[in-house]
Amino acid sequence: MSFPSFEDVRELLGWRPSLGVVSVYLEIDPADRGGAWHTELRNGLAELLEGDGELDHQTRVALRASAKRVADRFDDPDRANLPRGKAGFVEVAADRGASERWWPTQIAPRSPAVAYLTREPVLAPLVDLAGRCVPRGVAILSAERVRLLERGPGRLRELRDWELTLISDDWRERKAPMVSNPAAGRAVSAAGHDQYDERLEANRHRFLGECGRLVAEAAAERGWSQVLAFGAPPDLGRFRDAIPSSGSLSVDAGAEADLISEPRETLREQVEEAVARVDGERDRALVERALEESRAGGRGAAGRQETSAALVEGRVDHLLLDAALALFGDGVRPALDAASDAGTAGSEPLVRSALAGGARVTAVAGDVAAPLQPFDGVAALLRY
After folding, report:
1. Which end of the chain is more exposed for a tag (fewer CB within 10 A), N or C?
2. Is 187 helix (H, G, I), strand (E, B) or coil?
3. 280-382 in CATH: which number?
4. Is 312 left (phi over 0), alpha (psi -120 to 50) or beta?
């Protein structure tokens, strides 16, 4: 299953079909036998068609055909296998062979509307989804076993399971021989026991280091930028020390707990709690830094006007948005002939400008976003 990525967002950035695009963001509840989500989709499409009298005949015909294609996609009576969310972009065209792009999300979009009709794809909610769908590694550690999993939206997949094999026969053969002098025997036995403990500790140290190297390789192959590690503090330290400090991969502590034997379903809740905590701490630090830099006249901007000016100048390195206030405006109904105006109440122009300038974009929510509210829900870290 392919989830939306930032590469997908950038590919859509320059897409501008001649008659426009229908952008769809849908929260699906397969357990809802009443099909409220399906009714919401049909109502959203109907709202787009209400104003089609203002369009020319060719666009009106194409829009109705495109809306029908979207509705037909979700009319299958067997909806049990549908994901928790869907994001899609449909070229406005009468031809059934027109371009379409769809992604499952397994998490609900935070867009207040279901469907938009604009000249270009509405990308702000997709950027938010891409950030929340980013896969990351999960390492469950003990001194003699490491489990590697991948956390994606709505799922936790087990990938590898490494275990340190301790060959007890070898250790018995290396024990000191019995001697007739009891005192000497005790001394040698104690020395042998100490050597056994030292070898065991050295083997554990090497094992965790080797697993750290293997996890770094897996991260490179799978495109992870973060691994959450769970285990006792000494094991976490040895594991993290083995990860190359390239800057492209961070290893964050999920929890200092012994979870090595926990089943995957039990782990899921604890992993999700750790993800929420780690992401919240990261986002809070970004917001605080941007606002502090702005107050000090440094590399920060706060508010729509200041941030927009920095975007025009190409100075924004990281755009920060309040997801609740900024994803697409305050009940504004997008219109095909005024796509840029439709986004002025939300974040669409800011997001597009940031993406075009190579900046990162993060939507923050809840208490983390509260400091942004006096600044139109917008701030940024600047390159210079």
Report:
1. C
2. helix
3. 3.30.1330.30
4. alpha
Class of 6-133 per CATH?
A: alpha beta
CA–CA dist 131, 86 (Å, integer): 15
Taking the C-alpha atoms of residue 138 and residue 127, their distance in angstroms, rounded to an integer, is: 23
Decide the pairing of beta strands 21-27 and 85-91. antiparallel
Domain with CATH 3.30.420.60 in the chain: 136-262
Instruction: List the chain pLDDT tens, one digit each, 384 residues.
Output: 578 999 999 999 999 999 999 999 998 887 776 778 888 999 999 988 887 677 889 999 999 999 999 999 888 656 557 788 899 999 999 988 889 999 988 888 887 778 999 999 999 999 999 998 899 999 999 999 999 999 998 889 999 999 987 654 443 333 434 444 555 555 545 565 667 678 888 888 889 989 999 999 999 999 999 999 999 999 998 898 888 766 688 999 998 889 999 999 899 999 999 999 999 999 999 999 999 999 999 999 999 999 999 999 999 999 999 988 755 544 334 445 444 444 445 788 999 999 999 999 999 999 999 999 999 999 999 999
Of 114, 104, 108, 109, nearest to 81 (Cα)? Answer: 104
- Contact by Cβ (8 Å): 2, 103: yes
CATH of 136-262, one of 3.20.20.70, 3.40.190.10, 3.40.1550.10, 3.30.420.60: 3.30.420.60
Sequence-separated (6 or more) residues with CB below 8 Å from residue 199: 171
Rg of the chain on CA atoms, in Å: 27
User: CB neighbours (10 Å) of residue 149?
Assistant: 21
- Residue in 325, 333, 326 with CA at minimum distance from that of residue 113: 333
Helix/strand number for the chain, H first, E second: 12, 13
Domain with CATH 3.30.1330.30 in the chain: 280-382
Alpha helices in the chain (DSSP H): 6-13, 36-50, 57-73, 124-133, 168-173, 182-222, 233-241, 264-295, 304-312, 323-326, 339-342, 348-356
Q: Which two tokens stand for residue 142?
A: 């003990």
The residue assigned the tokens 């590919």 is: 11
